[in-house]
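the two lines:
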Amino acid sequence: MNLATCKLTRILVGMVLCFSALRGYGQDAKLQLANLDKLSEKAARVTDVTLDGSLLQFAVNMIEKADADDKDVEQLQSIIRNLKGIYIKSFEFDETSQYSKGDVDAIRSQLTSPRWSKIVQSMEKRRNEYDEIYVLKDGGKVGGVVILVAEPRELTVVNLVGEVPMDKVASLERHLAPGEKQPDKPKHKEGERP
Amino acid sequence: MHFSEDNLRDALKRKDPGEGFTQRVMARVDQAKAEGTRQAATKKVNGKFLSWWMHRPAWAVAVVAMLLLACGIGGYQYSEYRHAEEMRIARAKQQQLQQEAERARDQAIMALEIARAKMNHVLQHAQLQAQPNDKIRRQRL
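prediction for all of em together
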């Protein structure tokens, strides 16, 4: 191998490494949750929300149109305005041990990048409860949030993509839409996409 | 070529036309007459039709005007129908979009409500776990 070939090989290897590093850095806040779909059959109650792209824009426009004088609506508008996607998969089971550790680890393995930070962890080993909150750092802002609730009869993954004002989400009022039914208690299996 | 007198005499001598010559000639004459009458009749009819219109220009104009009016009304009605149909489709699409947007809004609200509930659930659990540790720490101190 002559000197020129050797140099060229080094440059190519360097470029490949740079690209892969950039790819890792530019990792999206959206998680792959398709591996949990198989749990739908075992679950007694499934909540599956996928809101992104034009559908989320529809929702944002509708909420923006709503009465801005209402404090709840104002808070909701400030939260949803900068969101790029909302993905939720929640399974409630009648019996314990309906999902495996591998199902949860498949989610956790996507949160190992240095950009993700685990900000809250609550572990109750005796009751087999593992609750975690991760945030994706995007400069000085939060670029995404993952809430993982793994309990004996429940597995919930909430994935919010975009700039998420955590404090506002946590302090959201229970009755967001006056006159509407309580939204977090769906009667049965929720449809995948509206 | 030389013709002799005998040749000429022979060529010009009277020949018998055969039996039924007169009938054949008369039949030809009748046939020619019939053909002529037919052609004349057709020409007469065409001429009559055209001449009727030629002598009544007002009628001709009226008929043409009626035809144009009928075409115009038909075209207008068709375009109106098309317009109404397009409007109906657009309205239906808009209604569908509105329904989709409302569904998306409800989903977004539900999703944020779940996010809030789960976030508070995790925070509460974490707080509860931290409390006994604090107590132990305080007791040790």
